[in-house]
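Field: COMPLEX_INPUT
Field: COMPONENT_COUNT = two
Field: RESIDUE_TOTAL = 308
Field: MODE = joint
Values follow.
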Amino acid sequence: METNQNIEKAIESTLGAAKNINSVDVPAFYADRTMQRISAVKNEPFLSASVLLKAAAVLVLVCLNAYTIKYVFETPAQQTPVVATATIDDLVNDYQVADISNDWLNNNKTTSHE
Amino acid sequence: MPLDIDIQALKNKDEDAFRHLVNTFGKSVFNLCLGIVPNTEDAEDLSQEAFVEAYRSINTFREGAHIKTWLYRIAINKCYDHLKWTKRKKRHALLQPLFNRDEEPIEIPSNFQHPGIVLENKEHAKVLYAALETLPENQHTAFLLYEMQGMNYKEVAETMTVSVSSVEALLFRARAALRKKLHKYYYDNTSFKK
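Field: COMPLEX_OUTPUT
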């Protein structure tokens, strides 16, 4: 109970702090420094280096995309059709280990479960 | 035009007109920035950036609008950009947007330096500023302009380009969220535990 009352009191004090903030004067030479910054903007070139760099980057990306799209549409599809002609013999020939032959496999296929 | 600001001269990028603008609104824009970023150096830098931005984009300023609220909007955006940038630099910042903002803990800033806060009020003000940073931007802005800058509902609405009823709703939500966050903060604070 006491804790809640303390918390409520702290909350009220914290919210009340908003009303007790005094207005502050600007630092010395504030206007002069601001005008210096404005003058710097006034004198900066229309196209600054960073703007030119960004434009160049965008241009490179656009060219790259255009080239890729052109390449994709102009290159004919050259895919070889996949034909399922492989047999168990081809598999054995491709993967046979040492002296194990197709005949040996066929001979042992029937006897292995006996 | 109020306060004798020559908009046409500003649009012609007349330096004397801009110096007059800085002299007229420099203090209020600086204090506004201090309200969001409680550090003198950062607030000075950001408020000056706001004037530079105003110089760059003065031609987008709509005739008949209030130059003060327009400047305030620029300054507020600059300050929130700065806050986002500083938060991104912290650890796990990339993961934070994935979680509910309500759960974001109050972190007391280490570089708190607000000359407008008296010493006895400083600890509470630190906690308040830290809690405000965890609110959504529109609630933070409404609270800042109304409670700390002393604007009325109409002025807050003009600055935020929302209706007066929206400002009332934002303030209600901001106060409720602040109470909830502060309660958690003070409850977690060991000095309040038995």
